[in-house]
Design a protein that fits this description.
Number of strands of chain A: 8
Radius of gyration of chain B: 22 Å
Bound molecules: guanosine-5'-triphosphate, potassium ion, magnesium ion
Distance between the termini of chain A: 11 Å
Largest sheet of chain A: 8 strands, mixed
Structural class of chain A: alpha/beta
Strand order of the largest sheet of chain B: 3-2-4-1-5-6-7-8
Shape of chain A: elongated
Largest sheet of chain B: 8 strands, mixed
Number of helices of chain B: 12
Largest interface: A-B, 45 and 44 residues
Number of strands of chain B: 8
Shape of chain B: elongated
Radius of gyration of chain A: 21 Å
Strand content of chain A: 5-15%
Oligomer: heterodimer
Helix content of chain A: 40-55%
């Protein structure tokens, strides 16, 4: 916002910033319109004020009031977290990182390798498990029923009085109906050892580089397994992850965590202010 | 084939019927629709701008004002320009005059490189070659095992001298692999590398070092069809880092429009050679620019 008067070029610059962050054409135009109206009413021409208003509008959209804590402190043990998302988004890595955090908080954790499909997926999860010092429940062989692995992990968690069971699932594109049905089954079967109680969290992992398709991902996964939170991964790259703004707004599901690298400690709580500032940078 | 964009533009064109020729205002309204369609398809903003600029110029020319059906002519121009950028004809793999032919894979984390390695091995085997896979991702947990399994399924030998998970030097593995391939008479070497970010200078240098060590005939940049506006930054970074020779668009079996195809092709000028269309070994095909153009525009 270098100009000192608000000409069309300035408005375009503001819209560009939003578009480049993957906020989306519709939401960006809406935001700019609202900002224009406020600027008109205020009669301001000061770029600093406009910048502050833009930040305010974005922050309101991201909604700092949402509860973003992981739901792991319910009455009954174990808390079960199911991790879902499209292929390669960062699910397995996120499971490892969350386990690290929970262990650091002195909770007992068990991992469930319900990705029985992708080559070496269970090994990858087990490596994460040993890295952060927790055990992994996995199938005897590749291609086993993912729902039964999820069941066994949760059942073992119940028997052992584990604090948290984290269930990793195979990546799947949301337009694959059969795979989405399978995911629904994994969730239902994982809930059986809980005596009908639903799992405590279903985290949708969204890659920050994802564009407008992220909205469709969120819609379909929410429909299939009722997601309760979003993890925005790969924010350490140049992508801004702006699609989550529309996702949060449409589904009312908060971004809870962000992935900031490939290491065990590269996970952080989602901070709306930091997110908005990075988006406008 | 053009019906979808036509549908989208029909509201704009409805008002024009009977006017004979398009005014500048008509063209601008049309261009706004096209811009919106491209942005919704995740085409990168600078590419959208250059593209709509080119279309606008042609739309205002005699070519359109003298056309029987100006609106259809505009749609045709849009499609022509798209196919032009995506590449009229698909380029085939360049094979080395003296084997082995070396194909290196590079891209962001999770893009689909290792899966593609298996697909390439399977396809090239069916074409009568003896490909060998090389495990140069020594970083991501169990990337080596993954490649070994994928290679086994494809019936290809996997050179994996290091366990990975942080152990071993990928540049050395890559260099040694060429000698191994010569000794074992493999005519194709496919080098799988770790995923890396465009801004990770250290890892990008490592990728450049691997490239220098194997002197590849092809460096394929694998990019996820779901990527948004970051496509340009990332493609530029990999183009500078490893000077890729071709692009593979992955996860095209999804429902993303795949505007990244246009972004990468337009920004780097490198051809899109293949499409990855699933997790299976055979879910892999030659890239079709015309199909991609209608996919991007299919609003
Ligand atoms: N830079 C960066 N890389 C990440 C992050 N999270 C995951 N990755 C990398 O992304 C790639 C894919 O991660 P995975 O955890 O295997 O993803 P996934 O969703 O389990 O993949 P599938 O199970 O194959 O669907 C790996 O190379 C990870 O190291 C992150 O926050 N930042
Ligand atoms: N649906 C679909 N999934 C794919 C495709 N290509 C790869 N995948 C999946 O995407 C995920 C990541 O694929 P990988 O081959 O491990 O990706 P990568 O680029 O090697 O990942 P890193 O080594 O971690 O950087 C896996 O779940 C694959 O099965 C594709 O074309 N379609
Ligand atoms: K970022
Ligand atoms: Mg995984
Ligand atoms: Mg890989």
């Amino acid at each position: 916002l270098s100009q000192d008067t608000l000409d069309e070029a300035t408005w375009e610059e503001i819209e560009d910033t939003l578009l480049l962050a993957d906020i989306g054409a519709g939401p960006s135009a809406e935001l700019v319109d609202r900002l224009r109206e406020r600027v008109r009413v205020l009669g301001t021409r000061d770029p600093g004020t406009v910048q502050a208003l833009l930040r305010e509008e974005l922050l309101a959209l991201v909604d700092p009031q949402m509860d973003r804590a992981l739901n792991v402190d319910g009455e009954q043990k174990p808390a079960v977290i199911l991790v879902v998302g499209v292929n390669g988004a960062g699910k397995t890595t996120t499971v490892g990182k969350i386990a690290r955090v929970l262990v650091a908080e002195h909770r007992s954790v068990l991992l469930g390798a319900a990705d029985t499909f992708r080559a070496a997926a269970a090994e990858q999860l087990a490596t994460w498990g040993s890295r952060v010092g927790v055990e992994t429940e996995r199938a005897e062989q590749e291609g086993a029923d993912p729902a039964s692995v999820a069941y066994r992990a949760v059942e073992r968690g119940v028997q052992e009085g584990t604090d948290v069971v984290l269930v990793d699932t195979a990546g799947r594109l949301q337009n694959k109906v059969g795979l989405m049905d399978q995911l629904g089954k994994v969730k239902r079967v994982a809930e059986k050892p809980l005596g009908g109680r639903p799992v405590d969290e279903v985290l949708l992992v969204l890659d920050a580089t994802t564009g407008q398709n992220g909205m469709q991902q969120a819609r379909v996964f929410a429909e299939a397994v009722n997601i309760s939170g979003i993890v925005l991964t790969k924010l350490d790259g140049t992508a801004k992850g702006g699609i989550v703004v529309a996702v949060q707004r449409e589904l009312g599901v908060p971004v809870k965590l962000v992935g900031l690298g490939e290491g065990a400690d590269d996970l952080a709580p989602f901070d709306p202010e930091e997110f908005v500032d990075a988006l406008l940078r | 084939m053009f019906t979808s964009l036509s549908d989208r533009l029909s509201a704009t064109f409805k008002n024009l019927r009977g006017k004979g020729r398009l005014s500048e205002a008509d063209v601008d309204a049309t261009i706004r629709e096209i811009r919106r369609a491209l942005l919704d398809a995740d085409v990168a903003l600078p590419v959208v701008r250059a593209f709509t600029g080119a279309v606008r110029e042609r739309a205002l020319s005699d070519e359109v004002s003298q056309a029987l059906n100006p609106s259809q002519q505009v749609v045709k121009i849009v499609n022509d320009e798209l196919v032009g950028i995506l590449g009229g004809q698909t380029r085939r793999i360049q094979f080395a005059k003296r084997p082995p032919t070396v194909i290196m894979l590079a891209g962001l984390q999770g893009a689909g490189k290792t899966t593609l390695a298996g697909k390439l091995a399977h396809w090239l085997t069916s074409e009568g070659h003896r490909p060998m896979l090389v495990a140069c991702d020594l970083q991501r947990p169990n990337a080596v095992n993954q490649l070994q399994i994928v290679g086994e399924r494809a019936g290809a030998f996997v050179y994996a001298p290091e366990p990975g998970n942080g152990v071993g030097d990928p540049v050395k593995v890559a260099r040694d692999a060429i000698e191994v391939a010569k000794t074992k008479l493999h005519d194709i070497v496919i080098v799988d590398t770790a995923g890396r970010l465009g801004i990770d200078e250290e890892l990008m240098r490592q990728a450049a070092d691997i490239r220098a060590a194997v002197n590849p005939d092809e460096v394929l940049f694998v990019i996820d069809a779901m990527i948004g506006q970051d496509a340009v930054t990332t493609a530029q970074a990999f183009n500078e880092g490893v000077d890729f020779t071709g692009v593979v668009l992955s996860k095209l079996d999804g429902d993303a429009r795949g505007g990244a195809a246009l972004s990468v092709a337009s920004v780097t000028g490198k051809p899109i050679m293949f499409a990855s269309t699933g997790e299976g070994l055979t879910d892999f095909e030659t890239f079709h620019p015309d199909r991609m153009a209608s996919r991007i525009l299919d609003m």
